[in-house]
Specification:
Layout (H helix, E strand, L loop, with lengths): L1 E2 L1 E6 L2 H6 L5 H10 L1 H10 L1 H5 L5 H10 L9 H14 L1 E3 L7 E2 L2 H11 L25 E5 L1 H12 L3 H5 L3 H19 L4 E6 L1
Antiparallel strand pairs: 1-4, 2-3, 2-6, 5-6
Helix pairs in contact: 5-6, 7-10, 8-10
């Protein structure tokens, strides 16, 4: 099974504050900006919607309102939250994490740890959604706070060329891409990295 990461440079508090806010204005703004994307996603998930899954806009409404959340087809709430993060942040484009196989994130984490970078882990992007959103296998979700990003970048900047040269070339490329995310977060004060694995 191939997976991918969707990553956003964003102040993690902004999308988190939308959950349960009841902010109709923000919901409408998100719906307007991503109208075409939502139609595409609803077409992709048409069979699930016919089986009772909410449309993406219905899921967005539930997330903004703080519920109610259906007990099945909970993946849609994760994709709605991803859309909220996209609205408040800037999407990161990269090559090392789309597509990838299940064990890839653990390999990159091992590489990070081997060079002394332990303030962040890419496998965190496969964890659960923030409460009160219902849990779902996919999309996974995780956050590197601005503080985590700053600490990890300090650790990375202390790494020697020799340490990088000892890494598997594919792992090194992925780690260097992670460093780019960290630099971008640093360039935008108060922002971290919010990621979704699907």
């Amino acid at each position: 099974m191939s997976l991918s990461l969707s990553l956003f440079i964003v102040d993690p508090a902004l999308p988190r504050a939308v959950i349960g806010s009841g902010d109709v204005r923000t919901r409408r703004a998100i719906g307007g900006r991503f109208k075409r994307d939502m139609a595409h996603d609803d077409e992709y998930f048409a069979s699930e919607i016919e089986a009772g899954a909410p449309t993406l806009y219905e899921a967005l409404t539930a997330v903004v309102d703080g519920g109610p959340f259906g007990a099945t087809h909970t993946f849609q709430y994760g994709y709605a939250y991803r859309m909220i993060c996209a609205f408040h942040g800037r999407r990161v484009v990269g090559n090392s994490f789309s597509p990838f196989r299940f064990g890839w994130l653990a390999r990159v984490d091992e590489g990070l740890k081997s060079i002394g970078v332990d303030a962040v882990q890419v496998s965190e992007f496969g964890y659960g959604l923030p409460s009160p959103l219902p849990q779902t296998d996919l999309p996974g979700h995780g956050v590197w706070s601005p503080q985590d990003c700053a600490a990890a970048l300090t650790q990375y900047e202390a790494v020697t060329e020799e340490q990088l040269a000892d890494l598997d070339p594919e792992v090194r490329e992925a780690i260097e891409e992670c460093a780019d995310w960290l630099r971008e977060a640093r360039a935008h004060e108060g922002r971290g990295v919010v990621g979704f694995m699907s």
